[in-house]
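Q: Hi! First time doing this. I have a protein sequence and I read that you can turn it into a structure. Is that right? Here it is:
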Amino acid sequence: MYSMDEHVQQTRRQFFTSTASGVGLAALAGMLRDDGLMAAESTAATNPLSPRTPHFPGKAQHCIFIFLAGGTSHLELFDPKPKLKELDGQAIPESFLNGIRFSFTKPTQSKLMGSRFEFRRYGQCGMELSNLLPHIGACADDIGLVRSMHHAAFDHAPGELEMITGRDQPGRPSFGAWLTYGLGNGSQNLPAFVAMINHRGPVARAMAWGNGYLPSVHQGVLFRNQGEPILNLETPAGIRPEWHRAQLDAVQQLNRLKLQQVHDPEIEARIAAYELAFRMQTAAPELIDLAGETRQTQETYGLNRSGQQGVFARNCLLARRLVERGVRVVSLFQRTWDQHKNLEGEIRAQCLEVDQPIGALLADLKRRGMLESTLVVWGTEFGRTAITENAQPGPTAGRDHHPHCFSMWLAGGGVRGGQVIGQSDELGWRVAEDGVHTHDFHATLLHLFGFDHKRLTYRHRGLDVRLTDVAGNVVERLLA
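A: Yes, that's right. Below is the predicted 3D structure, encoded as structure tokens:
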């Protein structure tokens, strides 16, 4: 029979569990000792970000995902089309328009437009890239370029989600969240997954570094590259470190007791987050202090440049420093590539901003022996149309969204560089050979980290769900 003594004891425990007062904690500790639970309570809770072993040995251990949002034009940068130049100013054949949706373009008012820039061969492999990318081109022998990416999402937020989460719908984990779910963290003092923004963030906003239905501990942490790295992290003035530590211990003790009662994984995430935040109060300021970097390194990345050019350069250097300290995933976002008009001038300016720092990052990682274990991914949500957007070809013309064929590239982390995967047709309009769908791309990324994409799953609403949904094949040619 349920006795009054048991009821009183339960009521006392519930009361002490719900209070953070000093007397409550002291009494709670006494009750735990009386119940023989103090030893169990005082041991550290299982860290949901503890390093884990993948399905098989993967060459990549860290990922730097550079996402240049807006829909970067493959025709200007990565996929030379001499036939398109030859047909400049002509109407597109009707057959190319079958099954195509546009965001803004009226095909009857639009003309074919060849690239406004020249291409040249880079590296021993002779990879053809735009002359706007000399620094990235200098690393061509380390790059695996995919010219046959495709999916069906033709607007920004759905396209971003498609490339980052595997589906063009909200609510799913980002690639970075999946990777930390599979591998855990490699750093004791910094987050497993860090996101940084230059200019504006992606249209999908926090969903681009979100955890979706995975536990919240796998969500990316938004970093600032100057000032206070993470807002509201610093200890208030006048609070001594030992006081802060004692307060945190008290809160963690209560959280662990609650975890024993309800077994909610979000409590585990909260415990890990509080502990990490405490350690980051020292680690984060040291991270963004670049005084220890040589002048040559800073100039190579372009930190001496003004405005947003210097900001992007700083983010690239910080990405290397984060990976160097064990952070598993760093995502760099920049949304300035949506050239519906003035493509010629705008894309030139954007390449001046990103080419030097990205090239410096690849060279720096290689020089330090880090490129072998660090996968660098250059991505965007889609490409651009071979026709103008309701205008005649010229400096003021732009291109519309085009998810049916575009380019992305990878380097390091087990990628076989110096090669091109897939081909587009003569107008860069559709895939002509070896198409790579989003699911294939993600399956390949996971493989480089040692995961079978069909086995890296999470039980959600009664289903074992995965990044690659119900499709995807590893692009074997990309593997070293």
